[in-house]
Amino acid sequence: MSRYVGAIDQGTTSTRFIVFDHQGNIIASAQLEHRQHHPRPGWVEHDPREILRNTLRVAEEALGSAGLTVGDLRGLGITNQRETTVLWNRHTGEPLHPALVWQDTRTDTIVSELALHGGVDRFRAKTGLPLASYFSAGKLRWLLSDVAQARAQAEGGDALFGTIDSWLIWNLTGGPQGGIHITDVTNASRTQLMNLNTLDWDTELLTEFGIPRACLPRIVSSSELYGEVTLAPLRGAKLAGILGDQQAALVGQTCFDAGQAKSTYGTGCFLLMNTGSSVVQSRAGLLTTVAYRFGQQQPSYALEGSVAVAGALVQWLRDNLGLIARSADIEALAQQVDGNGEVYFVPAFSGLFAPYWNASARGVIVGLTAFANRGHLARAALEATAYQTRDILAAMAQEDGALLSELRVDGGMVANDLLMQFQADILDVPVVKPAITETTALGAAYAAGLAMGYWNSIEDLRENWRIAHRWIPSMTQSNRERLCGSWKKAVSRSLDWLAS
Fold this sequence. Notes:
This protein is α+β, with helices and mostly antiparallel strands. It has helices at 48-65, 108-115, 124-127, 136-146, 150-155, 164-172, 185-188, 203-209, 245-252, 311-319, 329-334, 374-400, 417-427, 439-451, 458-464, 477-494, and strands at residues 4-10, 14-20, 26-33, 45-46, 73-80, 85-89, 99-100, 159-163, 182-184, 194-195, 200-201, 218-220, 223-228, 238-244, 261-265, 269-276, 287-292, 300-307, 344-346, 364-366, 407-410, 431-434, 467-471. The chain is built from 16 helices and 23 strands. The protein has a seven-stranded mixed β-sheet with strand order 17-18-16-15-21-22-23. A hairpin with a 7-residue loop joins β17 and β18 (300-307). It is globular.
């Protein structure tokens, strides 16, 4: 009897395989990091083949560690880093170029050219997205223009485009021998090529970006039976759920009601608010995106704000400056000081995302005096994530005037008690961590399990959600206003750095 549901969680820095039971408890898991390639400043690449190999390895390790087989899985879901772009040959299965990661900024020139006619919001009405290097359409255009034979292969249907979900699914279901070429509505909504209202590739957008329709995957819902895996160790698994990572976390946090929001603290930080069946076009620099679509039900939409550098800043302090030996050491170092010593760190390494959308911004550390030390720098780095999250929530409040009653949080950084308490303090809103913090993988498992009848409805999923910890605000209003005022001043110093 199939007792569990499996999930592939393919993230920016690592790939995980997690097995969940009916209550959402973790039965088995395994994780592997993959290399980050930076061939030029602002360029970020992954090896798609390494990601595929790691996916199979972690699946084998997780199943083996618990003495499980594919027969124990009712269904399999996939969640993935979004916007990261792959182009590969459908006959050989070989990528034509390394994957262009969502953080990659090489398409800035393409974005600027397209913005000359109609500005950065010229496609927002259809896509919910501003023109930015963040999204897949510009990355695919770059590949088609700069990689030898790429355009000819794509126009002839010999080269296939996909975000990481499409790449993995195509390989897992047969590859050159009949692999399924699909993507779900959440990932498609992040390409800047899908119309939010029709949930299909938009002819005008394809023309403007110069994308041949022949290379695009078929758009499907987030929860349905797509097919069977043909590769060991997952051969025979029923693939039934696909969600972009941040939408998967929204589902894993069971934010199914309009107005509910979650924030995921990982390499970046991503805050999504469910807006129900309404496509809410932001006036405050937020993104409009598909939250999920279960089967043939009407889709749910969301507003999103993204922080490009969150956990990645801690890694930078570790790897580039040698300030800490392990990422986990950042909290102890920050706790050595009482307050930030008036030091502020704006990590605009590749520009600033919502609500600023300033591609020319660059990172700055301000407020340094002879009093500042390593602890103040560590604390300023952690606080930067909380300040940026506050900026996004303030923008969301502008959209409908509603204020959150609580913020549900997940991701690796929620283990940092100092950060989470500061987040509650600077928001003046309780911050809540669920008992199961692997909500991204859990959301993918939920999508697959719903399609396969493992769970009967979203009410079953709501019953699984339990609180592990709640951080209550304790900061005075005057101190909050002072800190936020200094943060805004620091952000102003980072804006348009390249243009100055």
